[in-house]
Amino acid sequence: MGITNSNKVISTDQIDCSGTLRVTLALTAAPEIGTNPTDIVLVLDRSGSMTGTPLANMKTGAKTFIDIIENATDGAADGQIGAGSHIGIVSFADTATADTQLITSVDTLKEAVDALTAGGRTNHADAFTKAVELFNPLSNNEKVIVLFTDGNTTTGLPPAPIAAAARAQGIIIYCIGLIGSNGVDVDVLNDWATDPDSSHVAVTPDEADLEKLFAELAANISKPGATDIVINEVIASDFVITSVLSPNKGTATMLNSNALRWNIPELGVLQSESAVLEFFIRHVGQTSGTKAVNQSITYSDKEGNVVHFPDPTVTVECEMIVTPEPCPVPVKVSVEGCSDAAVVDVGDVYQESLGRILQLNVTVKNVCPGKRTALAVILTEVDDKKEEHPRGMKTITIPAHHQSSCRDILVRCIKFVVPEDLDVSGGTPNALCNQRNFKVRVIAHSIDTDFHCCESIVTL
Known about the structure:
Number of strands: 23
Strand content: 35-45%
CATH architecture of the largest domain: 3-Layer(aba) Sandwich
Largest sheet: 6 strands, mixed
Structural class: alpha/beta
Shape: elongated
Strand order of the largest sheet: 6-5-4-7-8-9
Oligomer: single chain
Distance between the termini: 94 Å
CATH class of the largest domain: Alpha Beta
């Protein structure tokens, strides 16, 4: 059956500027269907929300699935599912119907798919019940349910216990979700599907992708288990890998701070197996925005399976940085030809007393959108009697930001020049190597408020 599913998921869709993500790579493989007879039940949603092109695209995908399985079982398009495998069709809306039993006739299967019409609510519990009833418990064939739906449960019993009972019987459950008018709760699909969830659930917002999802699943089901698997993962330059956990299959090696390699000698050769690798990455970029986690990810194996992993994105929110004092503008100087001396006028500069330069950074916490902030920085020097002497004050207006929530603002490069002739900290007067002791106080207030004067009118 080859690689029957592949996935890549991240632990959250939003982090701060130095936030960390857990990344999960997952693969599932199973033996070749030609030597591993398999009974497959296609469980198809025909509720009212499927009306129109969603139903048409689902029918195309289901029939493509049937064609791929037919060809894989006996290598010929002869109208029959071969090698002891079968396919059955169950459709559901208010209730579920077994449109066929587990059969081998391709024409009968396609006729059942073409006959589906949309209408009614969504009863997933009955869909699972009817699908399980099609399987012969005495058969040694592998048992697979492929459930397609475009919405959440709207009628019937809770489906989760029925799906769990099916899995306990050894039935493998895959879920394909279309984000339709009712939306699809991916967590619910994960709960129904066989573990690991990440390799047994596929969701798309585009109904045009349905044929591709059905085809990829059928193609992977029909191939042999994979051997000599090599996965090379390179993450985007705004992230670094901080740690790699040991996978449940094979070995993972961190090549550098942005790349790792996962080797799996064999997977799904004798029975259906899943492989999972987890690693952690940290954002090290300086800009906000929605960013792709992958730079690239490649897959290869001895059998030539074609595997595609999703490209997840995360929203990064970095703090605003205010730099109130720019650095001096440099003067360009060049010496040309064979000249061994040059005289250059570099302009004017104001003299400052011999002294120290203190450069301070401060973070103003929880500045809300649309609010300007007045910031005052007060510097004093402490003498050997613990008395304080004023050394300067600076005021800065921090512009308003327009992010979606309150955030921290970093203000950089607040500079004070402290002449040595003001040294009161003790030691040799005006000596550059003296230790000088200072205190810094920071005050911040929002400038923009909703205060309005109230005009009072007194009538006698």
